[in-house]
Amino acid sequence: MTETPATTVWRPRLRRVLRLIEGAPAPAVLGAGVFVLFLGIFIVTRPLTSLWLLAVLVGVSAVVAGVIDLADSERSSRLWYRVVCGVWILGGVAVLVWLGRSIELLPTVLGVLLVVGGLGALGGLSGGRVSARVLTIASGVGQIVFGILALVWPDLTLLVAAVLFGIRTVAYGVRLIWRAGRSLAGLPARLTDGPQTRRSLILGDVARYALAVGFLALAASAWWVNSWLAEGSPVVDSFYDAPAEAPDEPGVLIRADAYTGVHPSGGTVQRILYSTTDAYGVRAVASALVITPLEPPPGPRPVISWNWGTTGVARGCAPSLMDTTATRWAIPGVEQALARGWVVIGSDYSGRGADGRFPYLIGAGEARSSLDAIRAAGQLDDLRLSADVVVWGHSQGGHAALWTEPVAAEYAPELRILGTATLAAVTDPLGMARELTRRDASAELSILVSWVLVPYADLYPDVDVEDYVATSGRAIVREMTQRCLSEPGLFVSAITSLGVSADRPLYPANLTGGPLGRRLEQNTPAGPWAAPLLLAWGARDEVIPAQLPHRFVEELCEAGTAVRWVPYANADHRSLIGPSSPFLPTLMRWTQARFDRDERLVSDCWQLVE
Question: How many whole angstroms separate alpha carbon 50 and alpha carbon 278?
Fold first, then answer.
C-alpha cells in the first residue's frame, strides 16, 4: 500500500519536531526538567487535590513522557517503542479531553498506562551493558506489577497509580536536569557518549544492579501482600444462592446445612437460608446461624435472638461465613445459654451471605431479618421452639435488638418478645454521627461513615453519596463497603482513607444535616416496648459516646418504660461481650427472669428520681 501525501508530509515534520526537542539548548532543557520535576512532586504529594486537577496533571505528565521518549532518536527508531510512546501520548490526551470527568474510568486508565509503560520498557531492550538491560527489565516488571495491583485493588488504584505516575514524572524531570547539567558543564549529555574509565563502568554497573534488585524486591513484596490480602477475603459459597423461585411468605426455611466453623461447648450449629422482607418491604432471602444444645431438655425451647455487632456491609461479611462467630468470644454467654436449654439464633440480615441490600442501622430491615430467622429455625427437623423470645444485641446489633419488639408487634405477633438486652448499643444514630464527626478524621471513622452512607443511599432516594463525599473519593468510599472487619483487606481501605483525608476531607459536607441526618433520626429506636429492657455500656467506649446511652435511659424512664441499666467505668466497646465480661452474670440472671415471667426488679428508673 502506498503512503498518502498527508502521511509523507506528516512524518518529516514529526521528525523535525522531535529533533528540535532532543537538540534544544541546555537552558531550555533545564527549564523543562525543573517544570517536569515539580509537576511530578506535586502529583506525589497532592494526589487527590481534585479529580479535575489530577486528570490534568496525569494527562500532561503522560503526554510529556511520551514526547520525551519519542524524541530519543536512538530508541524511537524501533517500531515497538514508537507504538508505546504513541499510547502514552494518546492516553494523556484522552485524560485531558474526556476522562477527567469520570472517577470510575480515570483509575483504570492510570493502571493501564503503567502496564503499557512496563511493556514499553521490556520491548525496548537492545544491546549495551548487561547491567543496563537488567535494570530495564526490573523497571518494566515493576511497572507492570504495580499497574496490575492497582487494577486489582480499585480503592487503591487512584492513590497508588497517581503516586506512581508522579514518581515516574519525577524521574523524567531528573533525567532532563541531569542531561542539561552535563551539557552546561561541557560534558556529554549521556554518560555513554563520552570516554569512560573502568572504574566508572563498574560503579555504573553496581548502581544499576542495586536499583534492579530494589525494583524487583518492591514488586515481589507488593505481589505477596496482594496474595495475602486475597486469601483473607471471605468466600460466599453456593449455599447462599437464592432459589429460582423464592417463597412468597416471609420466614420460610429454604435450606439448612452444617456450620463448618468452631462450635461452642455443649452446642451444635447449623446455618439456614430463609425468606424475609428487606428494608424496602420487598421479599428477600437471608441467612442465619442456629445454635442448639447437644442434649436439650424436653419440650419447646426458649429462644435467644442474637444480633452481632458490625462485621461489614458487604455480602462476604456475613457472620455465618466466619469461623468463630458462634463461640463465647463473639456471643456473650452462649455456653451458659446452651446449658440452660436455650436456642440461640443469629441472623446475617438480608444482603449479607445471600444477595441483596444490607440494612445497616436501618431498624425495620434489621428487625424483620431477625424475626424471620426465628420463624425459619422453627421449621428445622428435630427442633421445637417456644414462642418465648429474649433479644440480645451488641453495637449495631444492639440497634437491631431495640427495633425487634416494636416491629414484631405487627410483623410477627405470634412471637412473644419477653425482653431486650443490649451491650454498647447504637441508641441514637444521629447523635452518634454528631459526636463522631466532632472528632479528628481517622481511618476508622472514614470506614464507619462509608458503611452507613452507602446503604442509606441505596435505600433512600433522597440520600445521594455524591452530596456528602469529595469527588475524588467517591470510588474509594464505594470500595470501602466491600471490605469486612475480619479481613486483612480492610487495612488497604484504612491506608487509602488516610491518604485521602491527609490531602482534603473525604466527607466535606455536613454528615448530620440534610436527607442523611433526617434518615438517621428516622432510624432512632423509639419503641414502644412493653417488655423490660436491659442496657449495658462502657465509660471508655471508643465508638459509642457514653452520654448517648445515659440520655436514652432518661428518655425511656420519662416514657414509663421498664428499664435497667449497668454502666461500667473501665469497659470499652468490645470488653462487655468477652468470656470475662463482668456483665455476663447480670445478663444471665435477667434473661432467666424474663423466661420465668419474674416481674421483680425490672426497672431502675427510681434511681433517677432520687
Answer: 37
